[in-house]
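Weekly puzzle thread! Below is a chain. First person to post its structure in C-alpha cell form gets bragging rights.
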Amino acid sequence: MSKAEKKLWRKMYRYEREQRYLRKRSELNEVLEEVFDQITLMTIYRLMNRKLIKDFYGVVSAGKESRIYLARDGNLNYIAVKIYLVTTAEFRKNRIIYVSGDPRFKRIPNDFRDFIYLWARREYSNLEAAYSVGVPVPKPCFVKNNILGMEFIGKDGVRFPTMVEVELEKEQLEEIYPKIIEAVKKLYREAKLVHGDLSEYNIFILPDNRIVLIDLSQALHVDQPLSHQLLLRDLTNITRYFKKNGLEVGEPSKLFEEITGNAPEYYGLVGV
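Winning reply:
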C-alpha cells in the first residue's frame, strides 16, 4: 500500500469512527429526550430539593412504557426510581381497561400526560395497599407526576434476579410455590387487589427463597369487571411455570376457588 493510499485509508477510518460516535451520541440523545423531557427533569429537581432523591445511577430495567433507575435517597439508601415515558402513544389505549371501573379513580383524564400521572399514582396506591397488609412487594416511597420511588430489591446496588433468571432446584420450587399462592391470596383478600399480569418474569427471588412481587401498575381492585378473569390468568401462568419445572401443583380453578371462595363459573368464567 502506497503512502497516499495509507493516508486515504486513515482519513476514511477516522471519518467512519466519527460517524459511529455521532450515531451513538444521537441514539443516546434520543433515549435521554424520550425519558427526561423538561417537565420530568423539573420533577426530578423538586424531588432532589425535598431530599427524596440524592443521586441517580444506571438503568435497572427498561421497557416500552418506563425505565427504572437505581438511585439513592437523602439518607443514602438505595431506591428504585421508575419513570413512566410520556411519549408512548399506545400506552393509554392499552391500559384503559385496567383503569375503567376502578372505584379509587372516578375520572379518567383525556390528556395523555395526565393519564400517565394517574397511572403512576395508581401503581403507588397499589403498592401501598399491598405493602400495608404484608404482601411481599417493594415499599412505596413517593410519587410525583410520572415518577415513582420505591424500595430497591437488591443488595449493594445490584438487584435480585427474577424467577425466570435463575435455575431453581426442586426443593426451592417446593418452598417458593406456596409463598406465591399465599401472596396472591393475601393480595386478593386483604389488599382487595388482583395483580393482573403475574408470571415468572415479575417475581423476585431473594436469599432464603423469599419472594417479592413487582410490577403492580396494572393491578385491579377486586370490584373491577376484569379482576376475576385476570386472577384466573395469573394462577394459570404460575401453575404452568411450576408444572413445566416438574412440580405437582393444584389446578388453577381449584386455587381460584380457594382464594375467592367461589368457583370460576360463579363469575362467568370457564375453569381451567
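Puzzle host: Confirmed. Bonus trivia for everyone else. The two ends are 72 Å apart (CA to CA).
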